[in-house]
Amino acid sequence: MTLECRNVVWRADGRPIVDGVSLSIPKRGVIGLVGPNGSGKSSLLRVLAGLRPAHGGAVLLDGQLLSRMRRRQVARSLAFVAQHADTGTELSAHEVVMLGRTPHRSAWAAWSKTDDDAISSALRQVKMEHKAAQAWSTLSGGERQRVQIARALAQKPELLLLDEPTNHLDIRHQIDLLHLLRNLECGTIVALHDLDHAAAFCDRIAVITDGRLIAEGTPETVITPDMIARVFGVEATVHPPSGQRRPRVSFCL
Amino acid sequence: MRAMTQSSLAIQPQGVGLFLVASSIALLLAAWAAMTIGDVEASSGDVVRILANRLFGAAYTIDPISDGVVWHYRLSRAVVAACAGGGLALCGVVLQALLRNPLAEPYLLGISAGASTGAVLVIILGFSIGGLGLSGGAFLGAASAFGFVAILARGAGSGVDRVILAGIAGAQLFNAATSFIVTTSADAEQTRGVMFWLLGSLGGVRWPDTWVAVPVLALGLAYCLSKARALDAFAFGDEAAASLGIEVSSLRTGLFAVTALLTAAVVSIVGAVGFVGLVVPHATRFLVGPRHERLIPASVLAGAVFLIVADILSRTMISGQVLPIGVVTAMVGAPAFAIILWRTRRRV
């Protein structure tokens, strides 16, 4: 499975937020999407997930136009985790994860063993089994984020799209989550703020600024003082820690 | 661990089954009570004989007055009350889920306001469109108000808050039209009639009304049940629903249209009965949890029982006088709801 966008444009109020991005996302591995606030990362993810119609260009899933596919079909291949999810409905964590089975169940089909297995394995992967019965409203921000990821995993997607999933997490859970993403069977595209995390955990990194893709490649080639100065306007030095290959950023404060 | 795979918040699934069985029995008991209670004496034995005569062609001798009252008035009235209560509760459940708003109810989209305007035009100005009379006028009014709100909501852009605001605009406009007609054209007697109609009444219900009420409820219920899982997916909003594979805009259009039709049909038969569509869904949600494949049937049953009981009370609470059913639903329903609210309070 590959997800591909060609010259995609998405506008808000006539202003281009995503401005001609072409990107191909392979079936395996983690792609990091980095860029400043308001650079269009979230919008690009939503266009890629088919949640917003591209105003120009095309998004293709296995060569098929995403906009022509049935939502149900798309949801079996692509799962999306928003930055912030909330509900006033009194659901348990388990029931939230159950929602992930929606695209796999017809209106009258009974709950199956496959559904049960998908849910337990998703809860296990995010280490939330012990809180499955707890009410959503009583979960902490980090726990909610993990439950949402479990919901997405229960969809059994081929590609997972996450919008800054580490935002509400403490450092322990951030690192756990990034490890989790790296070990998934499906491919992942994830918007991240922390350049070190992106460098350490992503196979490839795409840099977005002002809605344009300005660099795409391995962490070593993309995370450079030059790029950081150009995109974030911050002076930094980049060097891998001793004995490692992946770059580490230190900002000149 | 086993137990944890089920929700701990609501009644367990077997409990939900029990709730459905219990409320089905309650529905039969309520219908039974509706047939036996009233000014004209009819014992349970009489009711059995009347039903046997009417349904299975038995030939028991029975007082023709009891027969007429039980069969023509009370039973048809109970059937319509059940359909109206169930229908309004169903619409409430669906709209609360779609709009993610606990205050959403069947009249939110301007339907009762439009129905009132239509009914008032018929009552006061004597408009009669193709001999449709009061129900026809109310239905056309409801349909035009919903059309107005739908066009406005579409024009105002997407987003549930926009739909709600469009509904408010439509309701205010049609309510103003109703008030305008009443204050400029009605005499005291007509005003009283209008008031009574607005608060709802099952007094005029006869068998022909069931030929509208039953199929409309059955079709609406079947459609909404087939969308129960899709409604669950709206818990985290439209975008989350879309990412779970729901065709959000076509589903929303379909469900709005079905609930509007159902509400318009109910309102055109029994008037704008309040409270049921807003509160029964909440009360049922407290008891069976938020998942729609349980919540929908449970709410429909609860709404049906509730409105039959409210109707019995409306014609027996004050002897020799019939109260508007909307008054009873709120008078009985509000304390009952308060108790449920209290008993199921969050303990966190």
UniProtKB/TrEMBL annotation, chain A:
Transmembrane segments: none
Keywords: ATP-binding, Nucleotide-binding
ABC transporter domain span: 3-235
InterPro entries in the record: AAA+_ATPase, ABC_transporter-like_ATP-bd, ABC_transporter-like_CS, P-loop_NTPase
Keyword ATP-binding attached: yes
Classification via SUPFAM superfamilies: P-loop containing nucleoside triphosphate hydrolases (SSF52540)
Pfam families recorded: ABC_tran
Family matches, as PROSITE patterns: ABC_TRANSPORTER_1, ABC_TRANSPORTER_2
The keyword ATP-binding is annotated on this UniProt entry: yes
Gene3D superfamilies: P-loop containing nucleotide triphosphate hydrolases
GO terms, molecular function: ATP binding
Family as reported in the entry's similarity comment: Belongs to the ABC transporter superfamily.
PANTHER family: ABC TRANSPORTER ATP-BINDING PROTEIN, HEMIN IMPORT ATP-BINDING PROTEIN HMUV
Protein name: ABC transporter ATP-binding protein
Organism annotation: Roseibium sediminicola
Lineage of the species this protein comes from: Bacteria, Pseudomonadati, Pseudomonadota, Alphaproteobacteria, Hyphomicrobiales
